[in-house]
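Molecular record:
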Amino acid sequence: MSATDAALGVDPTEDTLRRLREAFAAGRTRPVEFRTAQLQGLSRFFQDNKQRLQDALAKDVGKSAFESDTSEIILCQNEVDLALKSLQTWMKDESVSTNLLTKLSSAFIRKEPFGVVLIIAPWNYPLNLLIMPLVGAIAAGNCVVMKPSEISKNTEKVLAELLPQYLDQSCFAVVLGGPEETGQLLKHKFDYIFFTGSPRVGKIVMTAAAKHLTPITLELGGKNPCYVDDDCDPQTVANRVAWFRYFNAGQTCVAPDYILCSQEMQERLVPALQNAITRFYGDDPQTSPSLGRIINQKHFKRLQGLLGCGRVVIGGQSDEGARYIAPTVLADVQDSEPVMQEEIFGPILPLVTVKSLDEAINFINQREKPLALYAFSNNSQVVNQMLERTSSGGFGGNDGFLYLTLPSMPLGGVGNSGMGRYHGKFSFDTFSHQRACLLRSPGMEKLNDLRYPPHGPWNQQFISWVMGSQSCTLL
């Protein structure tokens, strides 16, 4: 909203929302042909603008072409392809079982769109975390307002300028702005809100949604634990942990936020991590084209302040002008230190020592439920213990976040790390209202006499019986 609009009390979003509401009310988004056409347009958007998207992501967070392709562009294209392939199946009415009272009726669940939905995306994966939910919203037949992050300004610019050219602008809109504009946007009534970001902002979004009783999905973050058992090959663990900790310069909501291990494993793990970091990024990681940069000066300063925690055993270098933080490992970190009080969201990996698996599990369970949890051990019973005795949005045994490449698996948090889930059909279901439907013949009224008053003992006994006869085939 411009200063002039604000001074005049004009809200330009109102016209946008009115246009989308009219389009939805007219039923424009409901036909499968329309949904298919919009998804095909989204596919062309990626095909036509791959280089521009890669360039924008490189400018925003220093993503290499490999990281941009594997974590943003390819995943989004795969999501579109799956939706196009599966759309008609997803949209079909789902038949359900009946009892004797409804045996002659048609009972089914219809998947219908909510209406006008709002998707608010963050800056760390500015393409992925906007487009992935958008695919589900389109497939489900909704009109959509998209709010990309203003922090990843180069990607925001590409999305604002190009994406509307590939979608029906009477049904889809990109809205720009910072926190103030987002706050104004949230004052409007939407039929569904999908937000990805921090728990702090998630509470603000949820409060705004509650004023209109708007259903909501919150994809949040938190401190994701990574337990490393003594029965491990340190180099294998180091390779896998270093890769997904420093991917996107650590600015990943499902990255491991800290390692829990014994003092003995810490001593074995540190040189293995150093070896992995050197192999991945060279002797001077600042010159590596594979290592990203911190998004802005604010986050750089925050991360720089965390380097004083524990004992720096790897990395620790920084360059404010280049927004560079070296891949860093902190040993002997105490739970009371600042690096353990907030989600790090950067290339810093604290090592916290514990004496046993039980102590590690207790450490995890005393804190908010994380978005992801990882466990490494050659002993499958140790991994299973960690899985069975903890709770998290996702879980990885002896590997990192590769489960995010599977559209058959949902992404979503639990408790403080979020609510709701998406990816693949889970996205379609998230943006669809599951409508319970029963269609009965207007005739054969005599069959209904048993349910009408007055009710004698026999009527009551018989009705109770037929209502419990879910699989009876007498009729």
Q: What stands out?
A: Residues 471-475 have pLDDT under 50 and may be disordered.
